[in-house]
Structures
1.
Amino acid sequence: MLASSPRLRAILLRVAQAIPVVIGVVVISFLLTRALPGDPAVYFAGVAADEASIEETRVAMGLDKPLPVQFLHYVGDLLQGDLGQSLSSGRPVAVDLANRLPASLELTLTALFLAVVIAVPLGVLAATRPGTWVDHLCRVVVTAGVSLPTFFTGILLIYIFYYLMGIAPSPLGRLDFIYLSPDHVTGFYLIDAALMGDLETWRGAAKQLVLPATTLALFTLAPIARMTRAAMLTALSSDFIRTARAAGLSNRTVLYRYAFRNALLPVVTTLGMVFSFALGANVLVEKVFAWPGIGSYAVEALVVSDYAAVQGFVLAMALLFVALNLVIDLLYTAIDPRIGFEAQ
Amino acid sequence: MTDHTSRRNFIKMGAAGASILPFLRAMPAAAQGNDTLVVVTGATINSLDLHRTGTSRASYQVGINCYDRLLTFGTKEVPGNGLSYDYTVVEPELAESWTVSEDGMTLTFKLKSNATFWDGRKVTAADVKWSFDRAVSVGGFPTVQMKAGGLERPEQFIAEDDETFVIKLDRPSKLTIPDLAVPVPYIINSVEALANATEDDPWALEYLHTTPAGSGAYKVARWNPGEQLVYERNDDWVGGPLPAAKRVIIREVPSPATRRALIERGDVQVAFNIPDKDAAELADTLDVFSTPVENCIHCLCPNFAFEPFQDPDVRKAIAYAIPYEDIFQAAAFGRGLPLWGGTEEITDTAWPRKTQYFTDLDKAKEHMAKSGHADGFDVPLSISLDLASWMEPTALLVQEALGKIGINVTIEKIPGANWRTAVLVEKRLPLHLENFGGWLNTPDYYFFWAYKDGHLFNSSNYRNEEIEALVDATLHMPMDDPEYAPQIKRMFEIALDELPRIPLYQPALNVATNGAEGYEFWFHRQLDARVLKAV
C-alpha cells in the first residue's frame, strides 16, 4: 500500500518529520511555563492562605518536586494522552481544549471564509483594473482592515448593530441564553445543530456568529486582498500570459485558467499564515463577544501560571499547525502539479 | 448535566409543556416577566465546590445559592444604595434554633426538622459534622477561614442525634457565630458525597467539583465553565423565603463594554461587579447599587523594611501629600466612601474610619524637612496589573504628589500572577497599593490580618508591641465588653499615627439592574440570587 501510493508515503513522511518538532514543543513549553513569573501555589492557595496552606497546595500540585521529576511525570502522562488538570478551570485540559478549540475554529474558519469570498475577487478585480475605483476601494478596505484593531471593530459593530439598531442578537457568546447548546458531536455548533435537525438552534448559532466573524474577517481580509492583487499583477505581467493573449485565448481563459491559478500559490501561503495569526488575534474578539474560545482560555491560564493549561494549549496549537502546513503543502501539489513532495 | 435527557427536561420545564418552538420565541418575553433572570459578570466560575484548591472567588456564589449554612445574616437598608446583609443580626438558615452555653464554649444547634437535600433525604446532624470535618481538613482557604472562628479540628464537631449538632470550642469567641454564616461552612449531602468518594479522595472533591449536593435554594441545571451557569429553583427549600425567580442564568461576559451594552438594552437584568466608571455613568439611567465594601480599605503602604519609611515624619509627609479627592474621583469615580479629613480624636469603634489626614502640601513639606530625609529619595511604587483599573490612576497621582515633596517615585507594574507572592508573601515592595477587606466585620479582625507582624496582609512589615497585645486581647472579646471599645480606640490611634497603611478610600461593589429588584450586598462580594426578583 505504501509503495503503491507515493502521495500517502509522502504524507506519512511529513508526519514523521513533525515528531521532532512536537518533542521540541513539549520541552520548550514545559521550560517556558516554569520560567513564567509568579508562583501558582501561592495563587491557587487562595486569598487568605497562610504558609502552611500554600505548602499544602504546592505539594498537591506536585510543584515541590525537582524540575526533571516534574518533566518526567508530565511526559509520562502525555504518553497516556493525559494533558493534565487545569487548575483555573478545574477540569482536564483535554476536555477544555475539546470544548474550546471547536469554538475558536468555527469562528476563525467562518471569518476566513468570509474574508476569502470578499478579498480574493476584490484583489483580482483590483489587479485587472489597476488605478480604477475598484483598485482604490481595495486599497481603502485593506488599509482600514489592518489599521482598525479587532477589539475596536468589535465594540463598534456591537454599538451600531446591537445597541443602536437592535438588529444583531445579544453579544452573549455562541448561543443566546434562550437556546440550549446542541449535543456535542464535532463541537461546531452549526454542524451539530444541523446534525440534530434543530433549525432554530442552527439559526441562533449562525446569528451569534455574524458580528464576531465579520470583525475577524475585516481584520484578515487585508493581507489576503493585498496578496491576491500583487500575485495577480505579477502573473498578468509575465511572459506566459502575453503568449496566451498573443495566441488569441479569451480574456476569461487567460485570467482564470492561467493567471489566477498561478497567482493562487502565494495566496494559499498567505491564507495559512493568516489562519494562524487569526487564531491568535481571536483573543480580543473572544473577550468582546464573550466567545468561549481557546485564545481567552490560554491568556487566562497564562495570567495565573496554570502550567498544564498553557502546555496543553501550546501543544494543541503545534499539532494544529503541523496539520495545517501539511494541508497547505497538499494544496500546493493540487494547484501546481510541478511541485512534488520529493522536491521538498 | 449536559446529556440529552436533561436537555429535554430543561426545555420541558421552561416551556411548561409547550413545544420547543414557542418556548424559544417566548423566552425573551418571559425573561421580562418573573420566571427567569439573566445576570452577566466578568468573572469565571471554575468550580462548584468552594472547598477545592484553586476555586475562584466568583465560584463562591454556588456555595451561597446552592448550599445552606446553619446560620445566615439579616438584612438592612443602606441609605441610597438598596439592601445589605446585616452583620449584627444573625438568623437561622438550616438551624431552627441555637444555644450558647454559660461559659461560651459549647454551641448547640437544633436543625430544622423539615429540611431536605435535593434528593429528598432529610438533613441530619451527621451531614453537618461531615461537612464541617471536610472544611477543616481539606486545607487551603476553607481551613484558614474556619480557623478564624475557632473551628480547627473534627473532634470539635459532634452529631448528638439526627437534629442536634454541637460545637465545642477551645475558647469563647465573638467570631465563631458570624464565621458559621460565611460561605465556607456549608452543609453537604454526606451520603451522596461519600457514595462518590474514593480512597484517594475521601472528601469527594472530584465529585462535588462538578456536581453540587446540597439543600440550598437553587440547584445547578447547567454549567458550562467559561460560559454560563444556570440555577433552577429548589421548591422545597426551607432555609428562607422561596426565591421569586424560577431560573437564574449567570453568563460570563469578559468585556465590560459588552456587559454595559447588554444591561443598557435590558437584555440582561443584572450586571454584577461593573467598573466604577460604568457605575457612575449608568447611575442616571439604570438602578445602580454602589455599596461601600465593609471592612475594606484601599491603602498606600510604606514598607518598614525600606529605610526611609522607618522615619515617622516621612510617612506623615506622604499622608499629607496624597491628593485624596483626586484619587477618589479618578480611580473610583466617586463610588465608595472618602477616608480622609476626619478628626484626630477617636470617639467610636467604627472601621474603616476617616483619618485625620488631608491634602496639605505645606504640612507635608514641614514633615519632610523635619525628617532624616529632607533631601528626598527615590522609591519604586508597585502596583498589580490585575488591579490596574484603580491602582494605575492612583499610582500616577501619588507619583505626581510625592514628586512635589522630593520623593522621586517610579511606578513598577507587577503581573497579577506575581503580585501576591511579592506583596503578601515576600513582603518585599518598598511602597505599594493594597486592598485587604475582612469578611468578618470587626475592626480587630481587620487588624489581625493587616497590622499584626508576619500576618498575610501586613505587607508593610509593621510591628508594634502594643498593637500585637491589643489585637490578641480584642480578637475574641465580645463587642459589648467594657474593655473592648477603649482598646479598639487605642488600636486606631496607634495605627493612624504610625501609618504603616495610609487609607485612601473605601471601595464600592457596583451592581446595575435593569428589570430586577431585591439586590442585596454581601461581605463576600458575590451575587445572592435568592433575593432577586424580576419586575
2.
Amino acid sequence: MFFVVKTNVYCFNPLITRGIQLVISSTELGVSTGSAEKSAVLLAGDYLNKISGEQIERECRRFLDQGCTKIVVDFSETDLVNSIGVSILLGVIDSASSSGAKVVFSKVRQDTAELFQILGLTNHVTLA
Amino acid sequence: MADDTNKLVHAFGALADLGQAVTDRNNFQETIRTSLHLISGSLAIMRAGVARYSRFSHELNLVAVRGLGDDFPLGFSLCQEDERQFLINGLYPIEVDQARVLPFFQVYDVSLERKRIGLFVPLVVHDELVGALFLGEKADGTPYSSYDKEIVCSMGRHIGVALAQRNMMAELERRAEENRKLYDDLRMTYKDTVRAFAAAIDRKDKYTEGHSVRVGKYTEIIASELGWGEGEVEGAAVAGYLHDVGKLTVERRIINAPYRINAKESAELNRHPAVGYEILQAIHHPYADVPLAAKYHHERIDGRGYPDGLYDREIPYIAKIVSLADSFDAMTTDRPYKRRRAANEVIEDLRLNRGKQFGPEIVTAFLRGMFKELTGQSTDRKFRRLLGREYMEAEGIVPMLQDALSDVPLTSRAFATLEH
C-alpha cells in the first residue's frame, strides 16, 4: 500500500529575517508503506546556533502534539552546528523520544555528521 | 585521536561562547539559559539544570533546566553539613553514585535517580556557595571522563561568576531599597516635626491659628506653579511652615494685642525674622534656604521691608515666595484689629503690589494656581479648602483673575525660572 500524507511544513528561513520568521506552506511529504506516517520537516538554518533556536523545539513539540511520528531536521542551510545547536537538537530528540517519534537528520555536512557521531547523537537519530 | 581533537575544539568553542554570554549585558535569565545550552551542547548532555543558592533560605532553586521534566523538584533544601561539604569540595564535580553519604543525596535520591543525574557540580565563588549544576547522562551513554569533568569544571566557573554577580546585584538592590525606606522614614519624621513646629508656632497666636500651616501650603502652590521639582516644592513648603518660628520668643501679649502695637512692641515683634533665622540655622535641613526664608520674609522688592531693607534680587527667592504667601494669609484671615478682606480686594491688592511689594512672576504664579483651580483646569481644591468655597467662588473672581493674568508679560514664567 502506498499513499501520501499532506502536512504543513514550517521553515525557519534565514534569508527573510534575522529574527524568528515562520514561513508556512503546504506540501506533500511523508511517503510510507503499510501505514500512514505523519512527518514534519524543520529547517535548521542558522537559528539552531542561537538561543532563538529554541523555537525549533517548540515547533517540534507542536508537531508531535498534532500526531507527527517522524521529525525530519533539514541541515541543507546549516554550515556548522555549535554547542547551542547541539543542545537544541538534544531537546528535539528528547521530545520525539518521549512521544515515541523518530528523528531524522537530513542533508548533514560531513564534518557536522562527524561531530554528531563523536557526541553520540547518532545513537538517537538517523542520518539521511 | 581525531575524534578527541574534534571534541576538544567543539568544547573550547562552547567555553569561548560561554565567556561571552556571561560578560554580555543580557538579562540574567537569558544568560543562564544560554550557559545551560552551552554546557549541555559541549558534551551532549541529555538533561541538565542550573540552580541558584539562597544563603537566606539555604535552598538551591533551579533557574534553568533542559529535559528534566515537570516532576523534577524546583527547589532543594540544604543542611549545614551539605553546605560545608560542598564548600570543601569546591567546584569539582561530585559523582552522585559515590556521594550517597551526604544528607542531600539521601533526601533527593529518588528524583536524581529517576532523571539519571550523574554529576552534581557545586558552584563555589570566593569560598561561597552560589549555586549548582545537575548533569544527566550523555548522549553517547558513556560515563563522564576526567576530561569531561575538567570541561564541566571550567564552564561551571563561568556560570558561578554569573550567579555571584546576580546575587551581588540582588544584595545591592535589597540594600538600596532598605536605604530608600530609611530615607522615606526620615523624611516623614522631618515633615511631621516641621508640622508639629508649625502648630506650636500657631498656638502662640490665638487669632492666627493655622497661619504657618496655610503659609506652607500657599508656598507649595506657588513653587509648583513656578515649575519647581518635587524636592524643591517640598523644601519651599517647609520654609513656609517655619517662617514664623522666631515668634516663639516674642511675648504672647504683643502677638495677640487687640490694638495697634506701639513702637517698642513693634521693634520686639520685628525681631522675629532674625530670631527665626538663628533658630533654624542651627538645624541641618535637607533644604538649604529654610533659614533664609524666615529671615527675609518681611522684605519687599521695592526695598521698604525689614529687617535689612533689601531690594528685589538681593532677597532670596524663597523669601519672596513666603512673603507673598504670608501677606495673602494675613489679608484673607480675621485679625484682632480687622476683618479679613474680600477675595476681589485681595486679588486687586496683589495686582497693584506686583513689582512693588511682591515679585511679579510670583504673584502671577499664585494667581494662575488660583485661576486653574476655579476654572477646573486643575483638580486641586487647595484654595477652596483653605479659604472656604463661598469665599473663593464669589462673583467676578474668575474674570478678575483672567484680567490680572492677561496683563502679565509672557516672559514672566521664563524669568522666574531663570532667576530661580
3.
Amino acid sequence: MTNIEIAGIKRRKATDSIFRYIVYGLTFTCLAVVFIILFYIFEKGITCIDWNMFSKLPKPVGESGGGVLNAIVGSLMIVSVAALIAIPLGVAVGVYLAEKRGKLAADRVSIAIDVLQGVPSIVIGMVVYVWMVKPLGENGFSSLSGSIALAIMMLPPVVKNTEETLVLIPTTIKEAALGLGASEFRMTMKILLPTGIGGIFTGCMLGIARIAGEVAPLLFTAFGNPYLNFNILKPVSTLPHIIFNYGTSPYDDWQRIAWGSSVILVSLILILNFIVKFFESKWKVQF
Amino acid sequence: MEGTILRTENLCAFFGNNQILKNINIDIPEKKVTAFMGPSGCGKTTFLRCINRMHELTPDAHVTGKVRLHYQDVYQMDAMTLRRRVGMVFQRPNPFPTMSIKENVIAGFTLNRIKLKAKEKEEIIQDALSKVALWEEVKDKLDKKATSLSGGQQQRLCLARTVAMKPEVILLDEPTSALDPLSTAKIEDLLYELKGNYTIVIVTHNMQQAARISDVTAFFYLGELLEFDETKKVFTNPKNEKTQNYITGRFG
Amino acid sequence: MEHLKSELDTLRWELSQMFSLVLSQVKKSQEVFIVNNVTLVKEISATEKLVNAKELQIDSRCETVLALFTPVAIDLRFVLSALKINVNLERIADIADGVARMVSHSKVQFDKELMEKVEAKKAFDMVLEMFSCLIESFEKEDTLLARDIFAKDAIVDSITTGSIDITEAYFKTGDSLSQAIPLISIMKMIERMGDHLKNIAEEIIFYSEARVLKHGGKSSEA
C-alpha cells in the first residue's frame, strides 16, 4: 500500500472511533439522566408508600396517615373513560388514513391529526372548558369532561400508530382476503385489524401512558375532589392533581404524599411501558 | 366456441390514461389449463386481474369491453359473488398470518359469513388439503400458525384455501416464481391433476412451465394478444413471428 | 414431473409396438423367401401401411416431448434414440416388404441345394435372432444383450458376402441364371437388415450408457 492509502485508512479509522465514542457518550448521558430522575423520585417517595396510601382519603393539614385512594380511583376512572372514547375513534381514523393514503381528503385529515398532536394540553383543557364546563355553570366540572380532554390528547398517538401499523401490512394479504370474495369491511375486521393488533395495542398503551400524567387540562375540567367519587358527572381528583397541589404546598405531610403519589404514578407508567414491550414481541406477526 | 367458460370481448384496460390492454378477444376453454405468457409488462397479469375484477382495486384503473363467465357479464355481477366463483392464487404465498392452518383453509367461508357445522368444516379441510397433497404433511399440526410452513407448503395452502370454495375457475398469477424447483414441480403436478375438475388459468414468465403444463397457450405482447392456440402447436410451429422470436429467445 | 414421465412411458410403449410390428413383417418375409409361401406377400404389403403410420406417430410424439418438456440427460438421450430407432425399424420393414415383392415379381423357385450352399436360412434366422435379442434388450434396457448383436451381425455379413461367390460358382455348373440376381439381391437385403439392427443396438447403448459406439469404438465383448 502507498503512503497515501495508509494515511487514508488511519484517518478513516480514527474518525470512526471518535464518532462511535460520541454516540456512546451521548447515549450514556441520556440513560444517566433517566436513571437519576427515577432514582431520586424513588428515593424520596418510597418511604411514603404504605397501605394507608392506597386505602385512605387525604386528611386535613396536620393530621398524618392520609392516603390518595380518591386520586388513584380518579386517575383510573378518567383514563379508562378517555381510552374508551379515544380508542375506537382513533383506530377508525387510523384505518381510514391507512386505506386512503395518497388521497387528498386523507392527507388533510393526517395534517389535522399532526396539528392536534402539537396543541398544548392546557389549551385543549381551555377548549373543553368552554364547550362543556362553562355552559353548565356550577355543575360543569366533571370527570367526563376531563376524560374528553384527555381523549382528544390521546387521539394522535392512537391514530398514528394504527395508521403506521396497517400500512406495513403487505397488500398481498388484503388482496388474498378480497380475492376470496370478502367485503372491505369484513376484510378490515377479520384480517387487517387482527394482523395489526400488536401495533395498535402499542399505540393505545403509549397514548394512555401519555395522558396518565397530564394535569393541565384537568385543572379546568375535572377540577379535583378530596372525596372518593365514582360518578363521572362529578369532579374527580387524579394523581397528577395531588402531585401539583400537595407538592407546591408548604406542609411536610402533604409533600410526603406528593412524593408518594409520584412514585405510584411513575411506577404505573413504567409498568405500562413494560407491558407494551412484552406484548409487542409476543404479538409480532410474520408476513 | 364449445366448451368455453370465459370469454372476453374487446377488453381494454387502463391505468388513468395509460392503456395496458388493447382489444383482447379470447375464449378460455373449460376444465383445461390455459397459460398466458409474454415478456415483462405485456399486460398478462393485468388481464388476469380483470377477470376477477381485482384490477379495480388499483386507483385510477378502469376497463372497457366485456368479460363473460358462462355468458354472464362479470362487470354487471356483484364483485364478491364473482370472486367466490373465480378464485385466485398470488405470486408470493400469502396465508393469513394470524390464522392457523385449518383456519386458513376455511378462511373463504369465514370471510363470507358462511356458517359451517363442525363436521362440514373438518370434511372441507381434509378434502381441500388432500387435493393439494398437503394433508399428510400437516394433518398433525392443523392448529399451528400457517406461517410456520415452508414457502412451497404455504403456496399449496393458499391453493387449498381457494379450492375449498369450489370455484369454477382458478386464476394463478406466477404461482411458482417465488419457490424452489422442487416445490415448483410439486405445484405443477398438482395443477395437472386439478384440471379435471377446475378450469385453470395461469400467468407465467417461464415459457417452459407454460409448455409443460398447459393445454392452450396465449402469447401477449405490448398489451395485445398475438397468438392463442394449442400449446403443442405454439411450441412447435407458432403462427406469429413475434411468438417464435420470444420462444426461441431472440427477444424478451 | 408426472406429465413428462407418462409421455415417455407412452413413447416407450409405442416403440415396443413398432418393434413387434416390424418383427412380424420380417418373420413373414423369411417364410416367403425360404419356403416360398407367397400368400403372405399381400399381408406384408397391407401391414406396411400400418408400419408407416406408426412411424409418423412416434415421430410426432418425440417432437411433442422435445418441444414441450425440454428433457435432459437420460430422457433426452432416450428421445433422440427413439427417433433413430424409429427410422431404422421403418427401413427394416421396407426391406422385408422388398424381399417379399422380389420373390413375388421374379416368380422364381430357388434351388434347395443353392439355398443350403449360401446358407440363406441361417442368415435369415440369425437376423431374426438378432431382432428378438434386440427387443429383449430394449424392454430390459440390457446393454449386454445389445452388444451381442455385433457378433451376430458379423456372421450375417460373412454369410452374405460369401453368397456372391457361391452363387457365381453354382451357376457355372448349374443352368438357372434367373435365380442368381434375385438371390444375390435378397442376400444383400438380409445384410442391410442386420446393419439396421446393429444401428438400433448402438442407439440402445447410447441412451442407456451415454456411450457412442458408431463409426469405430465398437465393443462386442459381453
4.
Amino acid sequence: MKRFDCLGIIAGAATDTLVVTSAGAVTLEWNALRPSDGNFRVRTLGLCSSIALGMALGLPQRKVIALDGDGSLLMNLCSLPTIARMHPKNLVHIVFDNEVYEASGSKQTATATGTDLVGMARAAGIRQALWTHSVDEFARIVTEALNGHELFFIGAKVTTERTEVPPYPMDEVENK
Amino acid sequence: MTAEDAARTILNGLKAAGINLIATLPDINLAPLLHEVEADRDVIHVPLCREEEGIGICAGGYLVGKKCAAIMQNGGFFNSNNAIVTTLLQYHIPLLLLIYYAGDIGDRTFSTSGSMTEPVLQALGIRHYVMREPDDAPELIKRAQILAEDSKRPVALLLTKESLGRRASIKSL
C-alpha cells in the first residue's frame, strides 16, 4: 500500500476530526490533503500517540486520530499499555509501517525483522487491533473506526514511497 | 503533618489551581499523594509506564483545554528531557511538574540524581522552587501554575521528603 492513498481515504472520512501526526513525512502529506486548525504536528519522535491520548482524554466527545509511524511507535512502546489502560473510545491510532526510519536515512526499524506492532498493541490490551492488507480493507476499517465508539489500533504496511507536497506552512507556536 | 494529610493538602492545592488532568509515575515517597490522586473523582488520572509519555499526554491535554500536572521522581524528569525540550519548550506549552527530590540533603539514596536535578532544570531554563513544608503547598502550587500559564513554559516544584509529610507506616529509606 502507499501511505498517501491511505491518507486520502482518511481525509475523505474525517471531516472535522482532530489529527495528530508523527514526526516525519506523514505530517506534510496529511497537511497537504487536509489543511486544518485541527492538525497537530509532533516534533518529538515517539510522542504522537501520547499527545493524541491526552487530547482524547481531554475531549471525550470528539474523535482523535493519531497518524503514527513504526519508528515513532517503537520509541514509545509504553504508550500502548497506557492507551489500553485509559481506553479512550474516541481514539483511533493508525500506524503506517514502512519498516524504515524514513526521515532519518531509511535505516531499517525492528519491524523489518519481524516485530509485529499490531500484535504488541493487542498484547497490551487493545482489543480492536488489526492489520489492514489492502487499500479497500483500510478504507472499510477506518470508516468503521471513525463511525464507531471504540478504541482502535489500525496497522498498515506501506511502501517507502513519498509524495511530493509543499513544506509545512507554519512554525510550532503557530501550529499550537 | 502526616503523609496522608500532606497528600490531601497538595492535591487540594492542585485542584484549587485548576488542575484537572494529572499524569503520574510512582516513587515510594509519592505513594500517599498518588493514592489521593487516584481516588479523586474530579481529576483525570493517567498512570504512566514511563514519564516521557506523560509529557506528551499533558501537552495533548493542554491543547484541548485541560490544566495538567505531572508527578514523578527526578529520575523520571531526566527520562522526560527530550519531550520537555522538543514539545513543551518548542511549542510554548505550560506544564506544572511536581518532582520528588530524590538525593536531596539528608536523603540516603540517589545523591547523584539529587546533585544533577537543579542544574538540569536550570540548563533547560525551567523555573523551579523547592517545597519543604506541606503547609506551603497550596500557595506554591497556585503561584507556580500562574507562572506556567503566564510564561507558557513548564514550571517545576521540587518536593522534598519532608514536604510530603511524616510517614507512619513505612520506615524511611
